[in-house]
Amino acid sequence: MPTANTQEENSKSELQKNHGGGGGFTRWAVVAVIFRLALIYFPGNLNLSSRPEVSTPLTSIRRLAEGYWLKQSSMSPYAGSMYHGSPLLLSVLGPLTVKRIEGQPGHILCSLVFVLADLISAILIRATGRKLQIAYRKSLKSLNLPNKSTDSGALSSGDIAALVYLWNPFTIVACVGLSTSPVENLFTILTLYGAATGLAPLAAFGWVMATHLSLYPAILIIPVILLLGYGPDAPPSKLFRSKEHGKVGDGKSSQEIIFSWRRAFHLLVWTSLWSVYVLVLCSISVKQHGSLQEMFQRTYGFILTVEDLSPNIGVLWYFFAEVFDFFRDFFLIVFHSNILFMILPLAIRLKHRPCFLAFVYIAISSMLKSYPSVGDSALYLGLLGLFLDELADMQFSFFLFCGYVGVSLLSPVMHNLWIWRGTGNANFYYATAMAYACFQIVLVVESVSSMLNHDRKLTKLSTSKLQK
Amino acid sequence: MAEVEKKEVAAATPPWKPKPRPIVRLGIVLISHSLLVSVVCCTAGVVALFLLPMLAKNTYISENALMPGSASSMLSNDDISEAERLAKDLTSLNSGAADAGIERRRVLAKYLSDLGVEVGYHKFEPHQNQFHPLHFFSSPDSGLSRENGSCSSYGINVVGIIRAPQADGKEAIVLVTPFNFRKNSSSEALSISIGYAVFSLLSRVTWLAKDIIWLVADSQYGEYASVASWLRDYHIPVFSASSSDNADSCFEGNNINLLREESLDQTEISSGFRRAGTMAAALVLKVTDVKGQLEDTLSVYAEASNGQMPNLDLINVVNYLAVHRQGLRVKVEKFISVLRWEWIWVLGDTLNFIGKVAGSLNPEWKFGISTPDYVEGTATLANLLYRQALGIPTGPHGAFRDFQVDAITLEISPKVVYTNQGRRNEFILRSARLIEGVVRSVNNLLEKFHQSFFLYLLTSPAKFVSVGVYMIGFALLVAPLPLVAASLYVDANKPDPSSQGPKHKLQINFKPWKWLSAAKQVFTVHAWGVFVSLLPYFISQIPNSTPAAHSIIWFSLSTFGLLVLYLITKSPFKPQKGEWENLKSVTISVVFIGLLLMSVVNFATAQIGALVLVPACLLAQPLKLDIRDASLKSFLRIACNVFISFVAFPPVGFFVLKGVNEGSGNMDVGEFWTWLESLWAWNSATYIYIGMVHLPCWVLCLHILLHSC
């Protein structure tokens, strides 16, 4: 037996030991929840909820509490540029912010909601991973390629992805730091889950809610349509076609590559239904003190015009603090269309892998969005685990890991140097933000290229099979 | 047919292999020659460190608004004689009497209120410094609990505030003179004299644009504690009723009431806490008696917690006025023992010679430095690096830095203890004029100090090395780390030619993720490091034990923890090829990240740590391999490895340094504990560095050395 294979098995068995099968997942998920609860009770002076990395103007619970207070005192929750979130979130989480239980830390109920959201997200990721893996095996089988995933038994990419999501320090910090991003992430994941399982109403609901809460998931409509139309990720469709040419009379695989217009139409219908529903709910919620127009201005408008220039881990605040006012509109358009420009080429190149496409979209938007936080990174890092089999050959994994660790430690230190000690300045902090953006770019580029390499490898293998 | 051939060719050669970009090629070249690069870079880094005294530039006053020395002094002999009267009144009180402290405070307050300024008392309980491992990342004092201390121990500061006649009272300059009200000390009385002389002058002048606060800090519980608690109360008002009630009840039966009722029937003594605006700068004034000096000297202390320094302009102003206006000799503390090292003198001679040769070749090259200057600069630099690395403030000025106020301590020591009143008056006059000049300069400021450097090293009071220069040496020292990590990583994950299985199998191997298991080990050891750094908190709770016992308990518990960890995580598999390379690669990456972080938090710690950790990490290689090799090179490496890993163990390093500094006298195990305790009591980031970066990496290096490959 060559040594590499034993190594491989060793590493696999180690992974199995860590993550186990279903039982292992449950155990580690429970431990993750307990860990979060312990952190919530931990009387530390970390002040996570006031850290710029964790809470942005959109996700801060303190702003939400303020908005709720304004609403309770018969004012528009959007008065005074404090709150910029959804009125529905205000109605659900608002009452929880004021309710105190004796002897418990403040905002305990909100924390519990976020822990629950994280847990549900992890379970949904796991279910999505199962779906993807089944689809992957099926497509390998139909290509007559040996399937290694069946040998490895308990090692499932869905489990790993869910555990990566649960145990990612970014997720934990976002959850314990009382930002609303766990809820936003939950709806994004729900969209993907609904689309992967073919449930158009669920996918539509998730998409409408996610878009309503944070706007950027709107671009996920393309992967969702593709996912519903083509089914979960598969090797490129021309592979199946060439296979058909090779083996005449196999009609099974030809069904998989037909775009199902019926499902896409369902999705559109359901999307419009849910949108109307959400809008009606919102208008009821804001009717007394404001209007829907004000809501759009204060939420989407706030996101798109980058009004709040307080420092965060993104790259826009510094730029718009420096830019001359008369260029502002121009650069706003440039920066936002950056995301839009990438949608179409990526959609064309990766249309056979809609789930991965969704991951790439999420990663890009969390890099270029106006108020990013670590919660956004937590989402795409968790989703990255779903493509473990395909991305196993990814380069620079160690480099990226070190980069993420280094930047996430350096960023608070630079912030401290700038804000509290006064010996640094904004450039110090912004440098870490740029480094962070660079690492994200490397991650996206590397993952996309290794996914394409994987496709090439499959093509090569199946053509060599055919020639035999 | 031709097409099929082409396809086969394409299948045989690895597909899609474009030529890498120039930057990638450069990286590949560097990585493949990592040994050479690391030797060159490390040597250059160490050489650059020793060149720093030569590269130091003369200081200059960067902020135009300061205009030091542009106005003539207004201080007159009347102020001095009035101040001397106060000093006499203070010293004449019987120090043995129980209420001498109260009486002195009353005298001082009376004098101050006679000047027509606001006077207030500030009572405080001296805090025991608490261990806050996470304190560094939070805002100053956000987590400080105000626990109820016993009523028996408290101190009272006396605060005088001059309101600037033509200003809006939004800014202030602070003068601090530590004074022990309970004791009679001639030097402290002298410092009070100087302070009062300046203060009485400032209460009359018309040019004040900032309020002046004179804090006579009650130093019976230490100078730092009193200033720190006053600052805390100044910046963080307490509104909670319970704690203030409690504090008041403490003082109720005591003499503060007495003070209030009897001292002054007028209402000058305010009952509440008096505040002025935000502080522009603070000067701490002390007078000490040092025997055997040739002239009056002024020592400047600037290091605050975690090696933070005040803006260089403040030191510049003081230095300029002291040297050019008052004729005082300005000193910065230095390591005396460095002056005795022969090799430093030899190095200085060599550099001097090189400088001369270079100067003769091209007169434009003026980097020569005389040997005594070089040695003095090195001694000063060594002391500054050591003080910064400790992270413990060198005086009460450190408390100000926590609130972003630039502050320094001026320690003036007269040539002799003056008995002649005339000479004494002259000394007071010079010192007071210095303070007056500095206050006048700071008074001119339009903004906070920002123009000059915050990150610098001093090699003499008038010479500094800026961050842009000293970072080069550090960067050279740590530059090999990522290169070596990358080259090891590449070596360990090279595709094995023997394991190229059948090509037609869809082989998804997790080889690129092999570093994960090494990362797991590194993470475990770092978790152990966290455990070890938190242990002293619990050990120090054990009552009635000596520092030696503490350190033995600590040591044994840590070793026990490490053993348990080793047994739990011991891999049942036999070591694989490339395992130690992966482990070393991850360790080096962690060291790199840790040093980089530390260089931002506290440069001096990172520099000293890098001098130890970088060679230790780069040289680490399993001893087994070297023994198997049995060449001169490998024996040399074994010797280096054993020596470095011995010295890099923190207690050993501590005692070696101590032995070098103070001579190998009595070595007590408890000393190390005491030293570390002082580090964590002052919330020094160095403690966290030692516990969470240095110690785990040292353990990992040992692990690599003893690896059974």
Automatic annotation (TrEMBL), chain A:
Where does the UniProt entry say this protein principally localizes? endoplasmic reticulum
Q: Does the keyword Endoplasmic reticulum apply?
A: yes
Give the UniProt subcellular location, in the record's own words.
Endoplasmic reticulum membrane
**Which GO BP terms sit in this record?**
attachment of GPI anchor to protein; GPI anchor biosynthetic process
One GO cellular component assignment for this chain's record is: GPI-anchor transamidase complex
Q: Which residues cross the membrane?
A: 25-42, 106-128, 160-180, 186-208, 215-232, 267-287, 299-320, 326-348, 355-374, 394-414, 426-445
Matching entries from InterPro entries are given as:
PIG-U (IPR009600)
Its membrane topology, per UniProt? Multi-pass membrane protein
Q: In which pathway does it act?
A: Glycolipid biosynthesis; glycosylphosphatidylinositol-anchor biosynthesis
Q: Which UniProt keywords apply?
A: Endoplasmic reticulum, GPI-anchor biosynthesis, Membrane, Transmembrane, Transmembrane helix
Q: Which residues form a coiled coil?
A: none
Q: Where is this region: Disordered?
A: 1-20
Q: Which family does it belong to?
A: Belongs to the PIGU family.
Q: Which PANTHER family match?
A: GPI TRANSAMIDASE COMPONENT PIG-U, PHOSPHATIDYLINOSITOL GLYCAN ANCHOR BIOSYNTHESIS CLASS U PROTEIN
Q: What is this protein called?
A: Phosphatidylinositol glycan anchor biosynthesis class U protein
TrEMBL record, chain B:
Which InterPro entries does the record cross-reference, listed alphabetically?
Gaa1
Q: Which domain of life is it from?
A: Eukaryota
GO process annotations (BP): attachment of GPI anchor to protein
Residue intervals passing through the bilayer: 23-52, 467-490, 521-539, 551-568, 588-614, 635-657, 686-706
Q: Which GO terms describe its cellular component?
A: GPI-anchor transamidase complex
Q: Which Pfam families match?
A: Gaa1
What are the record keywords, sorted? Membrane, Transmembrane, Transmembrane helix
Instruction: Please state what the protein is called.
Output: Glycosylphosphatidylinositol anchor attachment 1 protein
